[in-house]
Amino acid sequence: xxxxxxxxxxxxxxxxxxxxxxxxxxxxxxxxxxxxxxxxxxxxxxxxxxxxxxxxxxxxxxxxxxxxxxxxxxxxxxxxxxxxxxxxxxxxxxxxxxxxxxxxxxxxxxxxxxxxxxxxxxxxxxxxxxxxxxxxxxxxxxxxxxxxxxxxxxxxxxxxxxxxxxxxxxxxxxxxxxxxxxxxxxxxxxxxxxxxxxxxxxxxxxxxxxxxxxxxxxxxxxxxxxxxxxxxxxxxxxxxxxxxxxxxxxxxxxxxxxxxxxxxxxxxxxxxxxxxxxxxxxxxxxxxxxxxxxxxxxxxxxxxxxxxxxxx
Length: 312
Prior knowledge:
Virus Head Decoration Protein, Chain: A; five-stranded mixed barrel
């Protein structure tokens, strides 16, 4: 095969017939066929421009490495969104390292860079948690939280006014207090065996120190439960003197001025007419007395009536 091809295009087709009238092959056709043979005998002998490339694919090329591509476009920091760029491993690592960052502040953002910082408005009821406050604002609230005096200068009349504060206890040292109803209360441990019930008539526990039990024998009542729902074994306020709301025996009424005693229902009381005449009160009745009723109540279930306590 010749080492080089002096001609890369096919010669023009001869005009005369291939075979002459005498039966001989035309000399022009013979030369033309020889020229075609030389063109086709060389790699790339046919000009690329005249080859029909319709339907061709890269897979038709045996060797097609990435490095052979021309006009490969590298990454450029602009707004072009055409997906025609190539990146290096180093470029990809920079971006992936940023995505994987979970510690620290890769953008160096500080508080001063934030936009639309909303200041606290102490007069607003907006509950959206998007506000900022200063150390000075926080200090005001913390100082108020830690105050142990009377930061609102609340008076006794304000605290005992009818309404939300009607059940406030005014404690004097943690173990003794005055109730809004006018009672003197002390704190003892509930040992009734169940949660406390407000107004229950109580006696002292014979099994525990500084504890009370439910009065069950119609005598020796010494206190009235001030709170409901205090668990057995927990400390609870009980009224020992002054005015207390006492739980009446179900189905019995109360009349102001009536003599009040322990009922035959455990922990309950009855406000009844006292025995008449000097000496009419028996010793047993004497020890059942808990005081005198100061308000009238109709009979019902779990009715409370105010009583000025007087223990015998």
